[in-house]
Amino acid sequence: MRALLLAGGFGLIGTLLGTRWAISILVRKGYGQPIRDDGPTTHHTKRGTPTMGGLVVIIAVLFAYLAAKLLLRDAPSVSALLLLFLFAGLGAVGFLDDYIKISKQRSLGLRTKAKFAGQTSVAAVFGWATLHFPDERGITPASSAISFVREVDWKLPTLLVILWVIIMVAGASNSVNLTDGLDGLAVGSSMMIFGAYTLVGIWQNNQYCVNTPGPRCYNEIRDPLDLAVVTAALTGACFGFLWWNASPARIIMGDTGSLSLGGAMAGLAILTRTELLLVIFGGLFAVITMSVILQVGYFKLTKGKRLFRMAPLQHHFELLGWAEVTIVIRFWIICGICVATGLGLFYAEWVLGV
Question: What residue segments make up the domains of the chain, in order of their start?
């Protein structure tokens, strides 16, 4: 439990102090955010705001986890290291995207195919690795079975498992990326989800069959407490970054942050055997992503008509005249409801045994 407090504290301090230092460096180098000309006109005031702030979050999380482990002289687990690989790997893809944007001063960075190839490569390596490195009981970090709050009875071939991991990672990372359009919206919502996964990890560890045998104990989970240490670092880092990213944002986390945070969510769902529960935890992200899919589909079917004034969904409400802060707070409330519902379902399964 001390590792959780240390990781969360280091993550918070790392972004709270480190982001201020990063802002001054990014401003001095002129690394400002390009803004879409077809977006809401209120966003034009954000042109030039320092971007790539997600790099601070990544460094803070890595430092927080490793510092907590070193201070307590505890060896890192394979599950946590794989999760951090996915987190940092997707951050590297996002960093390339952000760097191209600011160097060429355009709102589009990596080409879609190149960006997806980067996400796919990192996810495929992660998916393959999670099916290896068994512990003394023969349990690997991930499973070949699909899960909701626990594994189902049937399992998938290895190739399909890796494909499923790629779909989850790409879906989650792109969902957070689409949500990151208003100050504080994506990082504040991510903070709630990582907080929830911290509770999931603690509960799974407390009810771990190795420690607490019983009919409803968790036998198939690998390293639940160490995963909770990573999520504590993520929660603290998001909390500290929100200080600078809240409206009016002094810095934008960019694709560097959104892809890495989304990938971490998918990785946590896979490693904690709560894959489909992520859809409920991340209900806000799912709705925003669906708004883009519906908008594109409706536009093509009706040959030019729009279902929303603009997609993603948060920009639709901006064009309706809602203030940015109002949208963010209300969307945070929706995210909080989704997270509370997910935690309720997770706990209900354990209590009721359904």
Answer: 2-282
Instruction: Identify the CA nearest to 264 among candidates 245, 249, 278.
Output: 278
Mean pLDDT, residues 12-28 taken together? 93
Task: Confirm if 51 and 241 have CB atoms less than 8 A apart.
Answer: no
Distances in Å between the alpha carbon of 291 and those of 105, 298, 315?
28, 10, 11
Cβ–Cβ under 8 Å, residues 97 and 255: yes
Q: Residue 179's closest CA among 78, 273, 291?
A: 291
Q: pLDDT tens across 143-180, in order?
A: 999 999 988 878 899 999 999 999 999 999 999 999 99
Q: Which residues contact 16 (CB under 8 A, 6 or more apart)?
A: 240, 241, 243
Q: Is the pLDDT of residue 105 over 80?
A: no
Helix (H, G, I), strand (E, B) or coil at 339: helix
Q: Cα dihedral sign for 291, 293, 231, 213?
A: positive
Question: How many angstroms from the chain centroid is the CA of residue 245?
Answer: 16
Beta bridge partners of 32: 50
CA diameter of the chain: 62
In the numeric block, which tokens belong to residue 62? 């890595």
**How buried is 354 (Cβ within 10 angstroms: 0-12 exposed, 13-18 middle, 19+ buried)?**
exposed
325 CB-side CA count, 13 A: 4
3-class state of residue 154 by DSSP: strand
- 121 pLDDT tier (thresholds 50, 70, 90): very high
Encoding tokens for residue 197?
Answer: 């996964």
Query: CA geometry: angle at 335 spanning 332 and 339, to 5°?
Result: 135
Q: Identify the band that residue 45 occupies on the pLDDT scale cut at 50, 70 and 90.
A: low
> How distant is the alpha carbon of residue 174 from its chain centre?
10
Q: By 3-state DSSP, what share of the chain in percent is helix, strand and coil, each rounded to 5?
A: 70, 5, 30
Q: How far is the C-alpha of 56 from the C-alpha of 221, rounded, in Å?
A: 30
The band of 48, judged by pLDDT with boundaries at 50, 70 and 90, is low
